[in-house]
Amino acid sequence: MPVEEIRQRAADLRQQIRWQDHRYYVLNAPSISDAEYDRLMDELRALEDAHPELITPDSPTQRVGAEPADAFTKVDHPSPILSLDKASTPEEIRAWWIRVQKQLPGHTDDGQGYREGSAWVVEPKLDGLTVVLHYQNGLFVQGATRGNGYVGEDVTSNLRTVGTLPLRIPVVRRPEPRDHPEPKTPPPSLPERLVIRGEAIMLIQDFEALNQQEAAAGRSPFANPRNAAAGSLRQLDPRVTAGRPLTILAYGIVAADGPVPGTQWETLSYLRALGFRIPDAVARFESLEAVIAHCESWLVRRDQFPYEVDGLVIKVDDLAVQEAMGIVGRAPRGAVAFKFPGREATTRLLDVGVNVGRTGTLVPYAVLEPVDLGGVTIQRATLHNFEDVRRKDIRVGDRVIVRRAGDVIPYVVGPVIESRTGHEEIVQIPSTCPSCGEPVTSRADEVAITCVNVDCPEQRVQRIDHFVAVMDVDGLGQRTVERLVEEELIRHAGDLYALELQDLMALEGFASTSANNLIRAIEESKDRPLAQVIAALGIPGVGGVVARTLERHYTEMASLRRATVEDLESIAGIGPRTARAVVTWFAQAPNRSFLEKLERVGVSMCRRLLPEAAMQAARPQTGSLEGLTFVITGTLSNPRREIAALIERHDGKVTSSVSNNTDYLLIGESPGARKVSQAEAKGTRVIGEEQLHDLIWPN
Q1: What domains are there in the chain, each with its CATH number?
Q2: What is the pLDDT of residues 593-635, one digit of tens each?
Q3: Would the pTM of this model clear 0.85, i.e. be above it?
Q4: Which residue out of 74, 102, 125, 682 is catalytically annotated?
């Protein structure tokens, strides 16, 4: 066959396969059998193998995945990828519209405060990972995650493996004479450069199938479809992504070098015509009350979506009007997210267990009859504290209401009193620690019940793990700490500095390189700032902010040890409870011995004096967080100390526990159930990193 004919045949095969991929993945309407599809793909692969010069970046054969990357590179977005303000009631939707329409000149009211002649588009609020897709002359050339809204991570190789993502747009096929004619729609005009916003998600049925595969392979299942989608797309090895059932939904245009639709409704039609899958159940309304009725109707139908949806997005249809309304913080005024309430169910409380926290606090948790809550089987839930159990009169055997805070952390709302039979048992407050058996104590001014035994086994691992985390000892995770304690190689954090290479080499999983790296990391931690050492001690109520306050007043640990309650209370930001906790901690003989051991092995116990230039750079930057108090929990995009430093540079305050003075609880992956539950109980707003950025960098 002449080379030109081979080239043309390969081009025709690529067009046919792209069209069949579109029908299969996007339209869910395949027109040929799997065997016929395989024959087309095999023929194309054979041609490309014989003639590698014919391979194109958009060829269907290139979806298999590239070689693993060492790390993700950063990508600057052409325009900010903004988040949305939230509304949870019809009144808040009305208030949003009345508020934002005032940004437009010459607006008129119809008696309800609504702008005349407006229209809105309502779309599902997808619970996945935002992606930004770059096309050049119709060819997919780059894809990135949202990141911080301005800079994302390059995941181009991973996105190429996703079947629902067109590698070339528009997706059209030129039917050959022997084919049955397909309905013909003129392809839309295409700008030279087109940047599209979408969401990487995992369909619920695909998520369940994936978890079955993970379980069969002896691996831990994913917690929810969002985690599965995000984890699958952010693999360094694209071949792993290629094996995961991801779906890409497109819903917006970020930038274009040419004309594009002027309304959101037309944009969705345009994206569908290009070959993208768009969200289900989108609708357009010319009455705000119709919008509200539509949103309320989905409160009881949310499970009809084939993927996780945590609300609906209401957008002004006219994109020019959206643009004119501008931005507040990092959210466009012309759109708002109507959030669905947290999922809730009832089940039986079978028992109450007790965990012992790092500082000795006994925290009760509910052992539940398994119940499905938002697609997740819940068997345990937080009970906050024993005072909360008493106040709510929660009893073993009760039928209880369980809710997922932020659709993530399950907690017990309270009992269903009407369901009681009389056989329920009052929860007894323990008098001894379930870990060590020693008596517990409580104070009249606190709800906490505490084990004060410094050698309590359950506290031991957590205290060491806390020290390791605050001191930034890279490579030393909680499981390794547990093994070191189990093997009686360490009893407290000071023993870490006496570990030798042969101690680690004796542990399963350690080789010469990893053992040497850990010994080096432990050694390097000796040179941490005094504030970091103070925070690592685990004194109740002394987190990063309080530790830095103490460092400013005490240049060495020895002088802090001699401080009285009165001395500490005289410092702005140090309250009576914290002052007593500090003095009490230093008064305990085991703690003094611990400090002395740290000093003997060379851990820095003095404040560093920075050179003038460094002091200038370290001065806080003014920002928009003045007067706001934050608590951080879970795994975030950067180490927690860096997130805390970011907040403090913008005049915010970070504390270690949720109180009535806490303004925001910042959560990452796997947040602490207790902190989230406390925030829910106190009405503290729970936010993620996107919302934190919105607060820091308002426009």
Answers
A1: 3-64 (1.10.287.610), 85-176+188-339 (3.30.470.30), 344-429 (2.40.50.140), 457-527 (1.10.150.20), 610-699 (3.40.50.10190)
A2: 889 999 999 999 987 654 443 444 444 444 568 888 999 988 7
A3: no
A4: 125
